[in-house]
């Protein structure tokens, strides 16, 4: 008999290229959301470069592939990071999608109780134009594209937006490592203008927020620490807190669904529907 569960909000964080701070933003954003009282899970879906275990300074003995293959239970894979924050380690490779079938889904449903009280699942994906990454982007409730003020990064971010917009019309952005909010808004305005011309006015592109360049962020990353914890009053921390507040404003914690629609089982149910 199916049991009720929280409706999980699935948020995919992606980028056009590597090195723009996507995983750093994802891990620190997850920490801030969990501190606010939300139950948060982070799924490391950066196929080919799964590294959130490093970002959180934990050791992953198993990952989601072991669960999909029936070699481990979900409870053996999930890593508690702190109160209200869990990590689901990913698999470095595309093999994960070989096991996206009905049998796999039934196995996840059996383990669903481990994650059926999750309010938000952040999905740290790879570059957005990849076929497998697009599966995650189309399955998510929200897509956030991260970029920096580098011409090549902006071009790649726009390519991600263009490909993603073929199947969804709502995309959010975070401008990272900017010198000022004005620079972020100017860059976003240019991207929006190009998108409006070449993709169409139906695309709802939103600037979720910006983060100022600060050496404290790089310092924390090298220490395998969270910059929001190391430097709680730093400008990037305050900017990411504002982004977290924007996200929380969209969360309705009163909605319940069946367990098969929530947590990791709910995510893979959506992925299966993409095939």
From TrEMBL:
<dbReference type="InterPro" id="IPR050625">
    <property type="entry name" value="ParA/MinD_ATPase"/>
</dbReference>
<dbReference type="InterPro" id="IPR027417">
    <property type="entry name" value="P-loop_NTPase"/>
</dbReference>
<protein>
    <submittedName>
        <fullName>P-loop NTPase</fullName>
    </submittedName>
</protein>
<dbReference type="Pfam" id="PF10609">
    <property type="entry name" value="ParA"/>
</dbReference>
<keyword id="KW-0067">ATP-binding</keyword>
<dbReference type="InterPro" id="IPR025501">
    <property type="entry name" value="MinD_FleN"/>
</dbReference>
<dbReference type="InterPro" id="IPR033756">
    <property type="entry name" value="YlxH/NBP35"/>
</dbReference>
<keyword id="KW-0547">Nucleotide-binding</keyword>
């Amino acid at each position: 008999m199916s049991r009720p569960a929280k409706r999980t909000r699935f948020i995919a964080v992606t980028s056009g290229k590597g090195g723009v701070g996507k995983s750093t933003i994802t891990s620190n954003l997850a920490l801030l959301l969990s501190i606010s009282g939300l139950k948060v899970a982070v799924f490391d879906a950066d196929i080919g470069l799964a590294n959130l275990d490093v970002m959180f300074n934990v050791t992953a003995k198993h990952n989601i592939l072991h669960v999909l293959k029936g070699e481990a239970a979900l409870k053996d894979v999930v890593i508690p990071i702190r109160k209200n924050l869990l990590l689901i380690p990913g698999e470095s490779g595309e093999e994960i999608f070989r096991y996206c079938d009905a049998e796999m889904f039934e196995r996840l449903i059996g383990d669903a109780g481990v994650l059926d009280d999750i309010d938000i699942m952040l999905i740290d994906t790879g570059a957005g134009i990849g076929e497998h990454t697009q599966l995650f982007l189309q399955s998510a409730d929200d897509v956030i594209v991260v970029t920096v003020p580098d011409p090549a990064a902006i071009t790649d971010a726009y390519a991600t937006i263009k490909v993603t917009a073929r199947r969804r019309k709502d995309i959010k952005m975070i401008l990272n490592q900017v010198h000022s909010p004005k620079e972020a808004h100017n860059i976003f305005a240019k991207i929006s203008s190009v998108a409006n011309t070449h993709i169409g006015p139906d695309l709802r592109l939103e600037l979720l927020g910006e983060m100022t360049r600060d050496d404290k962020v790089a310092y924390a990353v090298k220490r395998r620490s969270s910059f929001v914890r190391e430097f709680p009053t730093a400008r990037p921390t305050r900017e990411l807190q504002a982004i977290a507040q924007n996200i929380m404003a969209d969360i309705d914690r009163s909605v319940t669904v069946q367990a098969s629609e929530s947590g990791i089982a709910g995510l893979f149910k959506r992925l299966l529907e993409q095939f």
